[in-house]
Design brief:
The complex is a heterodimer of chains A (about 110) and B (about 110). Chain A is mostly beta strands. Helices cover about 0% and strands about 60% of the residues of chain A. Chain A has one domain (about 5-114): Immunoglobulin-like. In chain A, strands 2, 4, 5, 6, 9, 10 and 11 form a seven-stranded mixed β-sheet that branches. In chain A, strands 1-3-8-7 form a four-stranded antiparallel β-sheet, with no helix packed on it. Chain B is mostly beta strands and about 110 residues long. Chain B has a single domain (about 5-110), classed as Immunoglobulin-like (Sandwich). Chain B has strands at about 5, 10-15, 20, 25, 30-40, 45-50, 60, 70-75, 85-90, 100, 105-110. In chain B, the strands form three sheets. In chain B, strands 2, 5, 6, 9, 10 and 11 form a six-stranded mixed β-sheet that branches. In chain B, strands 3-8-7 form a three-stranded antiparallel β-sheet, with no helix packed on it. In chain B, strands 1-4 form a two-stranded antiparallel sheet. Chain B is globular, with a radius of gyration of 13 Å. The chains are: A mainly beta (about 110), B mainly beta (about 110). The interface between A and B is medium-sized, with 30 and 25 residues.
Chain lengths: ~110, ~110
C-alpha cells in the first residue's frame, strides 16, 4: 500500500459546511498531491506540496485550501462545500529523487455534497 | 504550462488484437512521462515510465519528442487489460507538479 492512507473514505456533507480530508504517509516522501477524479475530466490537480509548509496551486484550486505542518500529513480543506465539489479525491506521494519519481496513490475519498 | 491530452475517452478492442492508447503532451522543458493504470476498484498504479524504457505486462511506450507523444502499445490485448489508463507528465529532475490526462477507458472484449 506504499504507506499512504486517506481519511475519511466516504463522506456526505451539506452545502456550505467546511470539510477537511486527510492524507497520511509513512514513507517520508517529499512531495504530496491532492487530485479530484470526475468522469470525463480524469485526474485534476488541486494543490500539491514540495515540503513542510511549502504548497502550490494546481489546475482547479478555487474553493480549496491545503496545509502541511509536518511531513507525513497533507490536509485538504473545502472552506464551504458546494455541490460541484462532489467528487472522488485522491492523494498521492512522490519521493522526488531524480530517476525515482513514481507516484503512489491513496485509496480515495468519495465526497458527496448535498 | 504542462498539459497532457488523451484524445480517446473510450477504446474497445477484441482479445488478441493490437491496442494503442494515444497521449500527447505540451511542455517547454524536459518532460518525464508515465502511464498509470486503474483497475476496477483499485488504486491508481504505475504501469511504466519512459525513463526506464521497460515493458510491463506486454505494454510499451516510446517518447517521441518531435511529435510530443508517448503512446502506449500492446501487440495482443488481454481481457485483464480492461481498465482506465492515464498518461502523466512531470519535469525531469524530480520537479514538483505531476499532471494527468483525462484518461482512456480500455475495454477488451472476449
Amino acid at each position: 500500500d506504499a504507506g499512504i492512507t486517506q481519511s475519511p473514505r466516504h463522506k456526505v456533507t451539506e452545502t456550505g459546511t467546511p470539510v477537511t480530508l486527510r492524507c497520511h504517509q509513512t514513507e517520508n516522501h517529499r512531495y504530496m498531491y491532492w487530485y479530484r477524479q470526475d468522469p470525463g475530466h480524469g485526474l485534476r490537480l488541486i494543490h500539491y506540496s514540495y515540503g513542510v509548509k511549502d504548497t502550490d496551486k494546481g489546475e482547479v484550486s478555487d474553493g480549496y485550501s491545503v496545509s502541511r505542518s509536518k511531513t507525513e500529513d497533507f490536509l485538504l480543506t473545502l472552506e464551504s462545500a458546494t455541490s460541484s465539489q462532489t467528487s472522488v479525491y485522491f492523494c498521492a506521494i512522490r519521493k522526488g529523487v531524480r530517476g525515482n519519481t513514481e507516484a503512489f496513490f491513496g485509496q480515495g475519498t468519495r465526497l458527496t455534497v448535498v | 504550462a504542462q498539459r497532457v491530452t488523451q484524445p480517446e475517452k473510450l477504446l474497445s478492442v477484441f482479445k488478441g488484437a493490437p491496442v494503442e492508447l494515444k497521449c500527447n503532451y505540451s511542455y517547454s522543458g524536459s518532460p518525464e512521462l508515465f502511464w498509470y493504470v486503474q483497475y476496477s476498484r483499485q488504486r491508481l498504479q504505475l504501469l511504466l515510465r519512459h525513463i526506464s524504457r521497460e515493458s510491463i505486462k506486454g505494454f510499451t511506450a516510446d517518447l517521441n519528442k518531435g511529435e510530443t507523444s508517448f503512446h502506449l502499445k500492446k501487440p495482443f490485448a488481454q481481457e485483464e487489460d480492461s481498465a482506465m489508463y492515464y498518461c502523466a507528465l512531470t519535469s525531469q529532475g524530480g520537479s514538483e507538479k505531476l499532471v494527468f490526462g483525462k484518461g482512456t477507458k480500455l475495454t477488451v472484449n472476449p
